[in-house]
Amino acid sequence: MSVPGVREGAIPSPNIWNDPAAYEVENLAVDPDRVIEATMQAVRPYADSVVLDIGCGTGFHLPRFAETAASVIGVEPHAALVLGARRRTARLSNVEVLHATAQALPVPAASVDVVHARWSYFFGPGCEPGLAEIDRVLRRGGAAFVIDNDARTSTFGRWFGWDHPDYDTDAVDAFFARRGWTNERRTIRWSYSARADFETVVRIEFSPEIAARVIAEHEGTDVDYAVVIRHRETH
After folding, report:
1. Which candidate in 33, 41, 107, 197 could, as Cys together with 192 as Cys, close a disulfide (CB 3.0–4.6 Å)?
2. How many helices (H) and strands (E) are present in the chain, helices listed first?
3. Are 84 and 114 in contact (CB under 8 A)?
4. Interatomic CA distance for residues 200 and 209, integer angstroms
5. Threshold 0.85, pTM exceeds
């Protein structure tokens, strides 16, 4: 079934598609220590580079990339989110936001130095067309990063496993490894300033039953959160 304003072939992201305001609260709480960014920068610094953010949503990460990148391209299949990303970056002359999918990136071959896809590609098998597009657009000396949930460990990983019992992080790791990607495990944090914010985000991230279970079980506003940072370099 097609969704108005959504490019054909896009895989739904119910959390941000249904409640971008709550997802913004989540973005503000994820990885305050910038572990993910430090890991990426150690692999391939993006200063003075062309950065492509696939599934950029409302563009939360685009201004951060734009601080040092030569140019930044956000790609998002949901038209309403594209508008939000364009509003967010309207004053940034080195940022462009395009309405498109990962399977059909509207950028030339060998024109991008760094590709970033966060929480948008953790389904493994089935994303081959997007990975082929990444290979097409990356230039020599570039690197692609896919940031995924790790269901094997951490408090968040346990909750994620409750809601997605068929998700197999080991199998997804193997899928990417066969294609030349390196899988690095990291532990980050969810850190909220208010309990109400934590509960709001839990309700968009999990089914009602699991959300109620998480809220009843977990006290406080901080959560340890395991991720897999997948990367592939071109030489």
Report:
1. 197
2. 10, 7
3. no
4. 14
5. yes
Instruction: Report helix, strand or coil for 212.
Output: helix
Residue 204: name the closest of 3, 1, 21 by CA. Answer: 21
The tokens describing 188, both together, are 């980050």
How far apart, in whole angstroms, are the C-alpha atoms of residue 156 and residue 151? 8
d(CA 166, CA 189): 24
96-153 pLDDT, tens digit each: 999 999 999 999 999 999 999 999 765 688 899 999 999 999 999 999 999 999 999 9
Give the contacts of 81 (CB within 8 A, at least 6 positions apart).
16, 17, 20, 56, 57, 58
The strands making up 182-191's β-sheet, listed across from edge to edge, are 95-99, 71-76, 50-54, 112-118, 138-149, 222-233, 182-191
Helix H or strand E encompassing 41: helix 35-43
Structure tokens given for 109: 């071959």
**What tokens were used for 105?**
């990136």
